[in-house]
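Pipeline run #58 for the internal structure catalog. This entry was flagged by the ingest filter as a single-chain record with no existing model, so it goes straight to prediction. Upstream metadata was stripped on purpose; only the residue string is passed forward. Reviewer on rotation: M.T. Logging verbosity set to normal.
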Amino acid sequence: MAVTYGLEQLGISGTIYLPESVSERKLNLLRRNGAHVQFFGDDSVYTEQYARKQAEERGQVYISPYNDSEVVAGQGTIGIELLDQLPDLDAVFVPVGGGGMISGIAGYLKAENPAIRIIGCLPANSPVMLESIEAGKIVEGTVLPTLSDGTVGGIEEGAITFDICRQYVDDWMLVSEEEIQAGMRLLFDEYNLVIEGAAGVSLASFLKYTKTNPHANLNRIVIVLCGGNVDVDQFKRLVF
């Protein structure tokens, strides 16, 4: 959506490459905003590889969703906003796919206050970043269907986010599909908010973390809810 908006504002053309597993709602929103979309593969890492190859062959600029220092820095402005609103922040829970958002947030927050705990949140069905951290290198890892379509998939070889995550993320949480669904339902029931699966991952991770770490002494916590682009029919099945 951000790239589509930028293309429109600059009056230039571009192509958004997506895996075939993209949610119908996200696809409709992109097309409604004028995006030219192409599909490749069922795993985002293969889509990225294909898009990069197309850009190289055509002499175009390739914009990675996470493997780019400026993209990471842009997502890091979330960290600036968090400290502006909550200067005595103790911890932040962030959903993780390729690691761009958590790298930006963690890089800024740790620079300002190393004591802030950064908790990476992943669906157990697609924990590629954590499996890579544990292996000491980027691996193909587990990629199964998940409600968290915004974080599913592998990580591009040589991604700059790997080292940033390894350095700055303090804890990792894995949550099941049932826990993600429960998080989505809880937020709707309590606050009438509609969130997508990737946002449900960070909320579910927070709930699980507080149960497994009752003495963590984290009082001022931020849970990053990264989006609400979920198909209506899917949301009804999950929540009602």
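catalog note: The CA atoms of residues 51 and 57 lie 10 Å apart.
catalog note: The domain at 2-58 is CATH 3.40.50.1100 (Rossmann fold).
status: ready for reviewer M.T.
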